[in-house]
Write a structure and sequence with these properties.
The complex is a heterodimer of chains A (291) and B (427). Chain A has nine helices and two strands; from the N terminus they run ααααββααααα. With 291 residues, chain A is mainly alpha-helical. Classes of the chains: A mainly alpha (291), B mainly alpha (427). Chains A and B meet through α1, α2, α4, α5 and α7 of A and α3, β1, α5, β4 and α9 of B.
Amino acid sequence: MTTAAPAVGRGRRLEGRIGWLEQTLGGITGNIEQAIFTEHHARSAGWLQRRDPRAKMIGLLVAILAASLTTSLAGLAILYAGTLGAARASRVPFGFFVKRVWLGIPFFAGIVVLPAIFFVPGPRVFDLALGPAHLAPSWNGLAGAFIFVSRVGVSVSLAVLLVVTTPWADVLKSLRALKVPQVFVLVLSMTYRYIFLFLHTANGILLARKSRVVGRTSGGEQRRWITGTMGNLMSRAFKMSNDVYAAMLSRGFAGEIRSYATYRLRASDVAALGGVAVVAAAAVLVGRLLP
Amino acid sequence: MHIPDGYLAPAVSIALAVPTIPMWAIATQRVKKVLNNRTVPLLAIFSALSFTIMMFNIPVPGGTTAHGVGGTLIAVVLGPWAAAIAVSTALILQALFFGDGGVLAIFANCLNMGIILPFVGYVTYRLLAAGSPVLSTRRAVAAGIGAYVGITTAALAVGIELGIEPALFSQNGHALYSPYGLSEAIPAMLAAHVFGASIVEGLITGLGVSYLQRRHPEYLTSLRGIFAPDAATEGTAARRPLWQVVTAAAAVAAALLAIVGLVEGGGNPNRMFGADWSRVDWPSVATMLLVTAVIGIVLVPAAYLVLPRGLKRIGAAFTAIAVIAPIGLIAPGFAYGEGSTGNVKAAFGYVPSGLQDLSGIFGAPLSGYNLPLPFFSHASAPLWHAAVGYEISGILGVLLVGGAVYVLARALRRNGSADTAPEGVGA
């Protein structure tokens, strides 16, 4: 039911035992890599990249809501076809987009849902007697599992599509369109900026340790060190927040937050939003009409 | 613990905004009142810190790693309101930018990890640490226990949110969203946390607070004056040796057990825990204990020597548990270790439906955790024969489970290294 942080653990390329240090380093590097990858694609000239970020955000929410509401595989298929079309038109690397989602999702969601196939009552697909136990998946269980895994996959695909076609700054400004308070948007944007500073700092600390430690140390020592590092980062966070506040004051910050970006909703954005609404409505209605 | 989209019905996802959004509003007001314009940079930087802490892999005994959330650690320093905003912001960033956790599920995730976790953790910490000096060991331990309770409560909340899905949203007999009911989702979430993730969270929080006490005590004293003026007085760190703490805890636990046993036995020492101790054949128990001790002295060091490096300690510990397991044979009146589904039902009030199907398989080869040979399980065999049988079947069980986990871990690792797609969002 929990999914591990996505990038963590994928840093494992080397053979053999990889420790916590390398895993953390790999995770940090993965996050930075991902941010660069995303910003690169968010700035290429594709169909979704040209849309108004507010329209994109609302369209995404409508589509994810439809994916959650639909009760049939056909509805999810319609939504996924629309998502794939949009990804194609937006020059998102196709192999990446499909593989990323469908290699990971059946793995996490599928393992979660696997036992349920056997416990759901109803007519059985087959009944394999193993001594006193029966291995008998039910049709209902299989149908439920398919819809569940597909729903998770389609929802994740939609979120991935928004992320790789929208620069982070635009995601934030479109949150304003959803009436998220300005203070939150400002905190989010500053957080995003400082995440990379912290990741950079943590990367340096971890690399410094890795390059100076030979052999193995005890688990207790490792835990003391990593919590010490967290405490140390916290102390830096305090100092940094004071410095940043001083810098903001010296540049004329008086509690007012002003944003300079102005977007104009074009006819093509409205049309795209209408298209999303039609696809979403179709996906939901298909489930009602063709159960 | 991040719930992805598709696990929760949209109605549930949106309903969870009802407690979450007002909490955010109150939190912003509370923090703003104390900090003024300073709020924005402080919260932003602590959100970034929370995000970074969630990235850290903590080495866990046995060679694996786990993630912490750090919500209670931030709550101890900044107070629960500021921690709620910091963790929530980090979670929103993870969902919107790094694809970790669902977009519709943001309210659910923020409620569980951003609000329930720091508040429960902080309240537990305050209750346990009440009145103790800021720099005392008790405060670090209280923070660790608070974090343990906080994240376990958050896991319980996740179990409830997932568990109500099949009851509310099913069609033609199959679940539309997360397929497990309350009786499966809650034990699964709790078991995964009580024995794993919660321990890690408690450990990093306790050790983190103790680091701050040693290196940056000002964050626990002067800052508390700003955020929680009624909190505590400054004091000096009283360093108590670990063995004293452990001995005191063991003594308290033994005393508690004795009291509970006496209460259950109606005050009669011969009927502790409601069992009839006068029926125990003490000489044969002594033989059994002697045999067990000899086996333990031989087997535990042998396991330590034979096992590969990473598994030495954990393997020796499991061997020791298997060796001392038959001590339960002493207890009269109730069969120990022979948990049939009837016993499980009595203990937990329900039988997980899967267990009922599977009990036939596991029951067959090593019935009652003893070996099906007359030497071990004959009714008139001496007690120590049965004890040896228990030990052998216990060690076999540890080997089987360990082997299965090892094979699974190898398969997963291969899967991970075969994945050569660029690092991107998703999963």
